[in-house]
Amino acid sequence: VNELKRILLVEDNPKDAQLTLRALGDAHLANEVIVVRDGDEALDYLHRRGLFELRAHGNPAVVMLDLKLPRISGLEVLKQMRATPELSKIPVVMLTSSREEQDVQTSYELGVNAYVVKPVDFKEFLSALKTLGVFWAVVNQPPAGCVRYDGPRDIE
Amino acid sequence: MSLLQNLPIKWKLIIINTLTSFFVMLVAGVIFFAYERSSYLKTLQQDIETLSDIAAANSMAAITFQDVAAAEDTLRSLREQESIVAAALYSKDGKLFARYVRYNAEWTFPVAPTADGTRLTDTHLISVRSIRLENERVGTIYLVGDLKKFAERLRIFLLVILLITLLTVLLAFIISAQLQKVISKPIGTLASTATAVSEKKDYSIRAEKSGADELGYLIDRFNDMLSQIQQRDLALHQAQLELERRVEDRTAEIKRLNTHLEQRASQLENANKELESFSYSVSHDLRAPLRHISGFVDLLAHDAKGQLNEQTLGHVQTIQESVKEAGALIDDLLSFSRMGRSEMQYLNVDLAEMVETIREKLKADVAGRKIEWKVGALPTVQADPAMMRLVLTNLLSNAVKYTRKREVAQIEIGSTSTDAEFQIYVKDNGIGFDMRYVDRLFGVFHRLHGQQFEGTGIGLATVRRIIARHGGRTWAVGEVDKGAAFYFALPRNNKEKSW
């Protein structure tokens, strides 16, 4: 279980984070989910610096990125990840409410692995996430405690 | 004459006058000369004949008596007459009997006398006359006159005539040189005035009038013409100034309008940018709370399933439906606004194929319903495929929606074409509409059947906007409870029309 890689969820809206976590839980994802609120925190986590200086080694199994984030945007995070050799191979799923063509196009240009428009219908959203979970993470585990990251806490 | 052609009028007049005088004098001189010569010659002839008569009378006795000495005496008396060069007497039988030759002169007498008469040679006048006594010829007198004096006189006469001619010609030259001014001066004035006007373009110059003759008249008319030209020139100049002023005004006006337009354009551009960021915000921010409502209502329904009664579950369902509606509204609004600004891509679109695809997608909505589809021939058009799909989807789903209450719904899709455009129609036997409200059909949020049928009221507005962007037209025909027909027309040559 410990070897199961984590999922990094970058989402500034707590309600969306809550719904996503619930959806991931319902999809029986065994992976631990780390939630950060903005692009800065996401990059700090990935680079193991700042608050995450002391976190365990290893890259997340997948990064779920909200497009619209405070400070550093999702697209910028994606861009920086793709420009960093040790982070460039991490699968990135863009989670967004935007159907703007330019956003979709830019995301794919920057090397996103999937682009999911968060449907208004929660059931659709759920099925989309389930599909993603099957694809990138290990699901054949009983429901595990999905951990929501609420700021700095003890290091595992 | 052609030599005269290019000379100034002054010289023409002088030369004409001088030549005229010369020729007049020449003719007069020749006539005078001829007359003088013939009259003098006549005098000479008469003189020599008189002398001959006198000499004949004086020598009558000598001839009669054959007295040579007396005859020669008589002839010698002719010495007094300077003009007589030689004289001779011939006897009755024609022999030379007595002769006289003036000192220093020479003369060869004929052996026998010639016939009576007076003959003129180049240098002499020869008179031959018979001497008669009582009507019987007794001899002949032969007299030779000298023409030296005659020639001298003629020469002097010729000289005088020549002198007079020269004087006349000179006088004619001098006089005409003075008098020609009367004619040439006004003409010169006219010419120099015309030149000045032409060179300076100054139509206020006037030629000076010098008399009331034809030239004076000509100068008057010339001045009249100049006045007219001056007036017209002035009018033209004023018109030109006026025109320039108006052009300036217009230019200023155009500049002002241009500036105004530029301002409007940049305002519009800003407004467009604002609208874009607005719709971007809408698509993100307005969707989020809806998503949350939807999500948490679902969680609520899921987690509290057992605790809720029928009525409360109904409320939850209503919330879910309303959220779905709001989501659809946002989606439609966004796509409507996107239609106005997104770039168009003209491709060949097979409308028949597109209609089939859309019908396939609508199948879920029409499950359990009885619909008679009638799809006619549809053309391939030059259009933006995504936009055309939206147009046909809107029209077909409308047809499906508004025929819902019919036992057997009839939906017909077809086209008619003209040289200029393709006309495509979608007809149904649905609830139709009142033609009084036909203009409202294509407006945003204008719904004629709001209560009975779901929908956002944006579909037909989007159709009209898309067709307009393709340079086409949209219209509709309908009757309440009988059905409706929606038409759109696309121009045939729709290659590069983009904005």
In short:
The complex is a heterodimer of chains A (about 160) and B (about 500). Chain A is α/β, with parallel strands linked by helices.
Report on the architecture of this protein.
The complex is a heterodimer of chains A (156) and B (499). Chain A has 156 residues and is of the alpha/beta class. Chain A contains 5 helices and 5 strands, in the order βαβαβαβαβα. Chain A has helices at 14-26, 39-47, 74-83, 101-109, 122-136, and strands spanning 7-10, 33-36, 62-66, 92-96, 114-117. Chain A has a 5-stranded parallel β-sheet with strand order 2-1-3-4-5, sandwiched between helices. Chain A starts with 6 loop residues before the first strand and ends in a 20-residue tail after the last helix. Chain B is of the alpha+beta class and 499 residues long. Chain B has a 5-stranded antiparallel β-sheet. The longest helix of chain B has 90 residues, at 214-303. The chains are: A alpha/beta (156), B alpha+beta (499). Chains A and B meet through α1 and α5 of A and α6 and α7 of B.
Major sheet description of chain A: 5 strands, parallel
Q: Structural class, judged by helices and strands of chain B?
A: alpha+beta
Radius of gyration of chain A: 14 Å
What would you call the structural class of chain A?
A: alpha/beta
**Mean pLDDT value of chain A:** 75
Task: Name some characteristics of this structure.
heterodimer; A: 156 residues; alpha/beta; 5 helices; 5 strands; 36% helix; 14% strand; B: 499 residues; alpha+beta; 5-stranded mixed β-sheet
